[in-house]
Specification:
Layout lengths: L1 E7 L6 H4 L2 H8 L3 E7 L12 E2 L9 E2 L1 H11 L8 E11 L2 H7 L4 E5 L16 E4 L9 H12 L32 E2 L2 E2 L9 H19 L1 H10 L9
């Protein structure tokens, strides 16, 4: 069973999402475990302080190294196998579907969530890897952790019900997903492509590939170029 854990000053942030929809169903089926750890449990003053002013001055507060070191070292002893430790930072590798597929091979992952103006640089020596979910600023690492866990749970066999669902989605082949339609076949004069109503599975598959290529070329030319350079088998580094 996969085991995903978070270390945060707001552990209550996670449970509503982890108990809902696909995450909740997969968890209730025993496909993965989830544990949210409270960083303040590893503080030793009456205010449970996890932050302090940065040396050299500047805006905001930084997360102190001592609680994070104690927490990670303690959490590593809470299961038979050590956790793969992931921190979030703008300097990290951008999280993509390829990253998710690689991390899906880990049986236990601990996501360390920062807050405030950031973390003391020394804590990154605890990381097995550092990742970023994009070039924008958030108030903390909780949302990035949820994004990563969501992407990982979807890759667990049985989590989606239809085993092909995770394969047949945007980014899995290096392309955006093809256009999709449902009933009615004619809505306000906008008609579903005839081929999707034909029952010809080979023709539908060909149309879907062409649609995926065109959508990727139009909306994500970077992915399109990477896919074409890698060949039609989709074995590229595209996200």
């Amino acid at each position: 069973m996969k085991r995903y854990e978070t270390l945060s000053v707001f552990p209550e942030f996670f449970e509503p999402y982890m108990s809902s929809s696909i995450m909740g169903r997969a968890r209730s089926k025993g496909l993965f475990e989830f544990h949210a750890h409270n960083l303040r449990d590893w503080t030793h003053d009456r205010h449970n302080t996890v932050d302090d002013a940065p040396f050299g001055g500047g805006q905001g507060m930084l997360m102190k190294p001592a609680p994070i070191f104690e927490a990670v070292e303690s959490i590593q002893t809470m299961a038979d196998a050590p956790a793969h430790v992931v921190f979030f930072s703008p300097v990290g590798e951008t999280f993509t579907q390829r990253t998710a597929e690689r991390l899906a091979g880990e049986d236990r992952i601990l996501f360390v969530c920062g807050r405030y103006e950031g973390m003391d640089e020394r804590v990154y020596t605890l990381a097995d890897e550092v990742i970023s979910i994009g070039d924008y600023v958030l108030t903390g690492g909780e949302l990035p952790a949820l994004c990563a866990i969501d992407a990982l749970v979807r890759l667990i066999p049985g989590a989606l019900g239809d085993e092909m669902s995770a394969v047949d989605e945007s980014f899995s082949s290096g392309l955006l997903e093809y256009e999709q339609y449902t009933r009615p076949a004619d809505f306000r004069g906008m008609k579903v492509p005839d081929v999707l109503l034909s029952g010809d599975h080979a023709a539908v598959d060909a149309w879907r590939l062409a649609s995926a290529l065109e959508r990727t070329r139009r909306f994500r030319p970077d992915l399109y170029e990477a896919y074409m350079e890698g060949g039609a088998d989709g074995e590229t580094g595209a996200s």
